[in-house]
Specification:
The protein is an all-alpha fold. The chain contains one helix and no strands. The longest helix is centred in the middle third of the chain and has 49 residues. The termini are far apart.
Length: 67
């Protein structure tokens, strides 16, 4: 009985460690996603401020020549 209890406690400790590692990873990824989203918004704003004519829509683009 005591051996089984020790085994279960060991498993729980291992699972708690694994859950903490996963939580740390998810937290880090969330910070990275938020940073990348802010950076993307900044780049979009800079691109549109540089030259609005460079942001042509598909309808405005000329089709490629056909051979």
């Amino acid at each position: 009985m005591e051996t089984r209890l020790v085994e279960l406690e060991t498993r729980v400790a291992f699972q708690e460690d694994t859950i903490q590692q996963l939580n740390d990873t998810v937290t880090q990824q969330q910070f990275q996603l938020e940073h990348l989203a802010r950076e993307l918004q900044s780049l979009k704003a800079r691109m549109s401020a540089l030259s609005p004519s460079m942001m042509a829509t598909e309808a405005e683009e000329t089709p490629p020549p056909h051979y």
